[in-house]
Write a structure and sequence with these properties.
Blueprint (H helix, E strand, L loop, with lengths): L10 H13 L8 E10 L6 E8 L2 E9 L5 E10 L1 E7 L2 E8 L4 E6 L5 E4 L2 H29 L5 H25 L4 H8 L10 E2 L2 E2 L4 H10 L17 H12 L5 H17 L3 H15 L5 H13 L11 H14 L12 E3 L5 E3 L7 E7 L4 H4 L2 H15 L1 E7 L4 H10 L5 E4 L2 H8 L8 E6 L4 E5 L2 H14 L1
Parallel strand pairs: 1-7, 13-14, 14-15
Antiparallel strand pairs: 1-4, 2-3, 2-5, 5-6, 7-8, 9-10, 11-12, 13-16, 16-17
Helix pairs in contact: 2-3, 7-8, 7-9, 8-9, 9-10, 12-15
Length: 476
């Protein structure tokens, strides 16, 4: 939402609304079909259950089912994405199942969570796999408890039992993967195997620290080797986004250019391997995560993605007009990214005295755009006031603030009640746009600069400025 003259909108609420809009409006990219499923769940006293499914990082509510006279629940629904489904009661998840090839089947669960599936081999195998996994985890938990609670327990005997059962479970898994290579569980296990470490990166059994940089590059390059991008079901599980998040957040340098390059690599890889649905999801997710979020770390990543990923070759599904819009937004942010020189603003305070931003020689300068009529500007303002009062000399910083409210009476009244000790100029958003090409659309809006007027951080939250200064000072 663009606000040019009056800043009465709560910035944080606007951001939350935009975010909710995005996550509640996912693009339907997965393979979809009609399902006719009957659920029979014994010893459940609720009259309704909720059926959900996964979509990347989100959980989508498919339907709420009411109990029939025969105590069953019946789902008939079109356009459901393949993947893992959830049966829930209220806030609780009862069990998961598969939306897969079979579109008409029945799942019955008794009071001891034994299953009976009719008409769907994929789900029958899924429950068999889940039961075997649950049993070995339960055995492990019970044996650990026994060893902890029973001082006279035969440790060797218990450990031998666990070894034999673990061996049996591993054999079951391997046989499962061999017999059912296209089952979703097999595809998931394969997709999330880590790249095998070549011997030349090892020093004995440990990673050679002298080759750490080369290994990280190798690991990132081969991270997706076993992921089947041609299988859309993996996007319908909670595991794809976990793998993607690890790739972007943990093994990619957290700089805009690096993140843009990593996203470009996986988008091209997905598109090359018949995985355009993944390419679209990845681009859509990260654009929405960083677009229109007024923080330096988001703006830097947004620009990096637009620069390296958004074009007619890499993202052909995005229209030419939308590509142009994204580029315009990116170019608008570019001069205000970290390490860029901030504009030299000059203006007069309420007494008519002229101030020039570049005349300030402090180690840090906080450029603070606000509005007397802006309610969100008043929230937690005492944090900035206290920080200025207690640490101005300690950290050698100054605040260069500009009141952008178009109502002079409100500005004078606010100034009377808040006689700030820092610099307070009076200006308008229109003048800032015309004179400095600065679009200040919402307040509060703060930029932290260094002595050379290079941008260190941008945020609408007061305490983040304080945290940034303290973090820098601690390092020094």
């Amino acid at each position: 939402m663009k606000v040019k003259s009056k800043f009465k909108h709560n910035t944080i609420n606007i951001i939350k609304i935009l975010f909710l809009f995005f996550i509640l409006s996912p693009i339907n990219l997965l393979s979809q079909q009609r399902y006719d499923i009957t659920f029979k769940i014994r010893d459940i006293y609720d009259s309704t259950i909720i059926i959900k499914s996964y979509f990347g990082k989100d959980i989508i509510v498919i339907d709420t089912l009411r109990k029939n006279k025969d105590n069953s629940f019946h789902l008939v629904k079109d356009n459901i994405n393949k993947g893992i489904g959830i049966v829930g009661v209220g806030k609780y998840e009862i069990f998961t199942f598969l939306f897969d090839k079979s579109n008409k089947f029945e799942i019955e669960m008794d009071g001891d969570w034994n299953y009976l599936v009719k008409g769907c081999m994929d789900n029958d195998l899924y429950f068999e796999f889940q039961k075997a996994n649950t049993n070995i985890r339960k055995l492990e938990k019970n044996l650990k408890k026994e060893l902890k609670d029973n001082n006279i327990a035969n440790k060797d005997s218990l450990e031998n039992i666990y070894r034999e059962e673990s061996k049996s479970f591993i054999n079951f898994q391997n046989q499962f993967y061999k017999n059912y290579p296209n089952h979703l569980m097999t595809k998931l296990v394969t997709a999330f195997e880590d790249p095998k470490i070549p011997e030349h990166f090892l020093k004995g059994k440990e990673l050679d620290t002298l080759q750490l940089k080369e290994f990280v590059y190798y690991y990132r390059k081969h991270y997706w080797d076993k992921f089947d991008f041609s299988d859309p079901r993996l996007l319908g599980t909670p595991y794809f986004f976990k793998k993607l998040k690890t790739y972007i957040s943990d093994i990619t340098l957290q700089k805009g250019d690096s993140i843009g390059e990593s996203i470009k690599d996986v988008v091209l890889l997905a598109s090359k391997n018949n995985g355009e649905i993944y390419a679209k999801y990845i681009v859509d997710n990260y654009l929405k995560s960083y677009r229109n979020v007024p923080f330096s770390y988001s703006e830097e990543k947004f620009v990096g993605i637009v620069d390296r990923v958004i074009n007619s070759q890499t993202t052909p599904w995005i229209s030419i007009s939308e590509i142009e819009t994204l580029r315009i937004e990116s170019d608008k942010l570019r001069p205000l990214l970290p390490n860029k020189i901030f504009k030299n603003i000059e203006g007069k305070d309420f007494e008519g005295k002229t101030y020039d931003l570049y005349d300030l020689k402090n180690k840090y300068i906080i450029v603070y755009f606000w509005s007397a009529g802006c309610e969100s500007c008043k929230m937690n303002l005492e944090v900035l006031e206290k920080f200025y009062r207690d640490f101005k000399k300690v950290y050698d910083f100054e605040i260069f603030s500009i009141d952008l409210d178009d109502n002079m009476d409100k500005s004078l009244s606010f100034r009377k009640n808040h006689p700030f000790d820092w610099i307070v100029l009076k200006d308008s958003p229109e003048n800032l746009k015309e004179k400095y090409n600065l679009d200040i659309e919402m307040t509060p809006d703060l930029y932290l600069l260094d002595r050379d007027k290079k941008i260190i951080n941008h945020t609408p939250i007061y305490n983040q400025i304080e945290e940034t200064i303290r973090r820098i000072e601690k390092k020094e």
